[in-house]
């Protein structure tokens, strides 16, 4: 059975109660976790001094039983309160994802139409030129996006020096436009992570996809530990980690819990956690998978929010099939980031106009860009309380 990282054990003193659903804990300076804990993550114990309460975050067994909501209505109010404490409740980050090198990937990810092993109609293409990429970034910024993400269908960047150097140039140029920049290029080496940081990269995406246990059913050409190693290189280089997963792959609820537990017990929480609903593409091994229900998305988002309070929880692939009221429930559950633009790599997505209309209908506010030097500073509680009001 999984175990919680030792650094999560207390006891920690409660300095403030947040409504009736969470505690603000007095953590040591070296603690790599957020100071807000939901009540179900903790056990009250009497401290050495009379009347002082301390906290012990739960092990995975209790994590699954108490954090994974049995019903959606019971979880929404609690998650919303924690979300209001850590973020401006109306702010939603808008990101745009562009496939800068499409198709021809050697891997066997069962969900991916860009694998060369499957007949999906996606043709292999070379790396896009700088002019094309920068024009796409410019259009995304004009439409309201503050983060521009570039994806390349590669297993890794080893032996791709020329292409990698071109991408470093793209990163520099887009950063100079005043946008956050993210890349997802497969596995990278330690020095490449350092080079991306020097170029101005804001975040690097490398999803874990699912639990360690279910992972071999989906992918055999890259190990779970290789994914974690890439995240380590990214984190050590000082780049924000973007990592999440996909639901609807045929996994059990325990696998969804396992994925979130792995993410929540990394040395530091990911800056961004994309929650994807499988887009079943004809020609892939998962083409006949049952569509993900909105309630499944809400439960994943709500649990991600409560376990990783400061993260940007991104409502990602599959959003296009959810109505505006359904998406509103996802925002209420804790989502505060979306991908906008007519495509997510090669699959359909909500276009800019539709999202602008949704923002207006729901009273949402676009989130301004936040760069590394600013993102590392903990927000002041006073501003958080003001944002929640």
UniProtKB/TrEMBL annotation:
GO cellular component, one term: mitochondrion
Domain spans labelled Radical SAM core: 90-319
Cofactor: [2Fe-2S] cluster; [4Fe-4S] cluster
Primary enzyme class: transferase
Record bears the keyword Iron-sulfur: yes
An example molecular function term from Gene Ontology annotations: 2 iron, 2 sulfur cluster binding
Stretch list, region Disordered: 370-389
Pathway this chain belongs to: Cofactor biosynthesis; biotin biosynthesis; biotin from 7,8-diaminononanoate: step 2/2
GO biological processes: biotin biosynthetic process
EC code(s) of this entry: 2.8.1.6
Top-level taxon of the source organism: Eukaryota
Alphabetical list of Pfam families matching this protein: BATS, Radical_SAM, SH3_Tf2-1
Keywords: 2Fe-2S, 4Fe-4S, Biotin biosynthesis, Iron, Iron-sulfur, Metal-binding, S-adenosyl-L-methionine, Transferase
Signal peptide limits: none
Similarity annotation: Belongs to the radical SAM superfamily. Biotin synthase family.
PANTHER family referenced in this protein's UniProt entry, alphabetically: BIOTIN SYNTHASE, BIOTIN SYNTHASE, MITOCHONDRIAL
HAMAP family in the record: BioB (MF_01694)
Protein name: biotin synthase
């Amino acid at each position: 059975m999984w175990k919680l990282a030792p650094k999560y054990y207390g006891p920690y003193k409660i300095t403030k109660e947040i409504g009736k659903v969470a505690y603000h804990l007095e953590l040591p300076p070296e603690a790599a976790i957020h100071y807000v804990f939901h009540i179900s993550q903790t056990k009250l114990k009497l401290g050495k001094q009379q009347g002082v309460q301390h906290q012990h975050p739960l092990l995975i067994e209790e994590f699954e039983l108490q954090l994974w909501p049995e019903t959606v209505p019971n979880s929404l109010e609690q998650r919303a309160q924690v979300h209001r404490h850590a973020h401006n409740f109306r702010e939603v980050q808008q990101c745009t994802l562009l496939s800068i090198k499409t198709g021809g990937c050697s891997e066997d990810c069962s969900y991916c139409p860009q694998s060369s092993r499957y007949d999906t109609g996606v043709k292999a293409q070379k790396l896009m030129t700088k002019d094309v990429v920068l024009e796409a970034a410019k259009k995304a910024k004009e439409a309201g996006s503050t983060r521009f993400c570039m994806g390349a269908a590669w297993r890794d960047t080893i032996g791709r020096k020329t292409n990698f150097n071109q991408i470093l140039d793209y990163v520099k140029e887009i950063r100079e436009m005043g946008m956050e920049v993210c890349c997802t290029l497969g596995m990278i080496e330690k020095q490449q992570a350092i080079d991306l940081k020097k170029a101005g990269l804001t975040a690097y995406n490398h999803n874990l996809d699912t639990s360690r246990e279910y992972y071999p059913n989906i992918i055999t050409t890259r190990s779970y530990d290789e994914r974690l190693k890439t995240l380590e290189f990214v984190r050590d280089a000082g780049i924000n980690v973007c990592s999440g997963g996909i639901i609807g792959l045929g996994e059990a609820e325990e696998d969804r819990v396992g994925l979130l537990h792995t993410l929540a017990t990394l040395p530091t929480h990911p800056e961004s956690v994309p929650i994807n609903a499988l887009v079943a593409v004809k020609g892939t091994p998962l083409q006949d998978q049952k569509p993900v229900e909105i309630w499944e998305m809400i439960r994943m988002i709500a649990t991600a929010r409560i376990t990783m309070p400061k993260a940007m929880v991104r409502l990602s692939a599959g959003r296009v099939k959810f109505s505006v009221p359904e998406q509103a429930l996802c925002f209420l559950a804790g989502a505060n980031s979306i991908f906008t633009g007519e495509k997510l790599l090669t699959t359909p997505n909500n276009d800019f106009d539709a999202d602008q209309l949704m923002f207006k209908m729901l009273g949402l506010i676009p989130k301004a860009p936040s760069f590394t030097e600013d993102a590392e500073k903990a927000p002041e509680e006073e501003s958080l309380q003001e944002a929640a009001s």
